[in-house]
Amino acid sequence: MTTFPNFLIIGAAKSGTYTLFHQFARHPEVFMCAIKEPHYFSYGAGGFCTDSGQRGPVNSFIRSREEYLELFDEQQDARLAGESSVSYLYMPGTAERIFDFNPQMKIIVSLRNPVDRAYSSFNYAKSYGLEPLKTLAEGMEAEPQRIRENCSLLLRYRDLGLYAQQLTRYYNVFPRDQIKVILFEDLVQDPAEVVRQLFEFTGVATDFSPDPDLRANVSRRPDDNNPLHQLINSENLVRSAVRMIVPMSTRRKIREFVRDLFFRSPPPPISMVERRQIAHVFRDDVRELQNLLSRDLSAWLE
Questions:
Q1: N or C end of the chain: smaller count of CB under 10 Å?
Q2: Cα-flanking dihedrals φ and ψ of residue 246, to 5°?
Q3: What is d(CA 300, CA 156) in angstroms, rounded to the nearest whole number?
Q4: Which helix (H) or strand (E) holds 179?
Q5: Is 108 strand, coil or helix?
């Protein structure tokens, strides 16, 4: 019986990893660790570490091997154990640390049109009060300086969409038959077939039906001028007082409840002018990715 993970869902961010994590978690032969994003191989295990205290998706991580293995102590009779951390695809050196930990590790990667991925991340950052700028184009223009200041991964709209660079690092370390790349668009169009392929890839029973109602972690876009949005996301006396008396886990649950209750509106679609402008930024990487995957991605170039 395995006592450590033998497969990972490594990204890309905002590309269906939430859905994949929970589809695997429902499978009777699979154990998924309780922490969806431990970020052990990228932020612990000798990887990049920060105590910057910035709010965002990577504001905590598992530091030690002992802590990491404890996440899988309760897997019992599961044939397969895994976890999902979207920083793994992006952070240099992570592939090597994963290989050193388990050279037989199977890697699942979900990729999404980089413009749509960036726009989804932009709206998600807006919903958490992390993004003060009005448009994605402005955010991408500010990105180089933000990266120099060690910004949240959510704000790395361009860098996280350079998939060819990121995948090449894994192909240079792992055999190709241990890496399964899917497209988010295929997952949306035919989730049952994509999940079946992933079950087959990881070696568990493929006759288990995935949950057809399990949707991706949909981004929401509150009005920047909404007073409630300002209250839960901006520094103010109310937040400072609550922080002093309410535990972090409880504050997080309250914040998510408020978001689900009041910020359900989908974001406005990205304009065609902005889409074309941003698609140009990713054009060379998409062409390289086509060759890497031997798959037509011309729809991403439009």
A1: N
A2: -115, 130
A3: 19
A4: strand 179-183
A5: strand
Q: State pTM to two decimals.
A: 0.82
Backbone phi, then psi, for 136, in 5-degree steps? Answer: -65, -40
Q: Which of 116, 127, 73 is nearest to 261 (CA)?
A: 127
Q: Which of 142, 125, 293, 298 has its CA nearest to residue 221?
A: 125
Q: Quick one: CA dihedral 178, 76, 23, 268, positive or negative?
A: negative
**Residues 6 or more apart whose Cβ sits within 8 Å of residue 217:** 14, 18, 19
The predicted-structure confidence for 252-271, as pLDDT tens digits, reads as follows: 566 666 656 555 567 788 98
Distance (Å, whole) CA 196 – CA 266 = 29
Q: Which two tokens stand for residue 124?
A: 């998600």
Q: Fill in the amino acid letter for 10.
A: I
Burial string for 26-61 (b: 16+ CB within 10 Å, else e) reads: ebeebbbbebbbbbbbbbbbebbeeeeebeebbeeb
Q: Is 210 exposed, middle or buried (0-12, 13-18, 19+ CB in 10 A)?
A: buried
182, two tokens: 């899917």
pLDDT tens digits for 147-202?
999 898 999 999 999 999 999 999 999 999 999 999 999 999 999 999 999 999 99
Percent share of the chain, pLDDT over 90:
60
3-state helix, strand, coil in the chain (%, to 5): 50, 5, 40
- How far apart (Å, rounded) are the C-alpha atoms in residues 203 and 80? 8
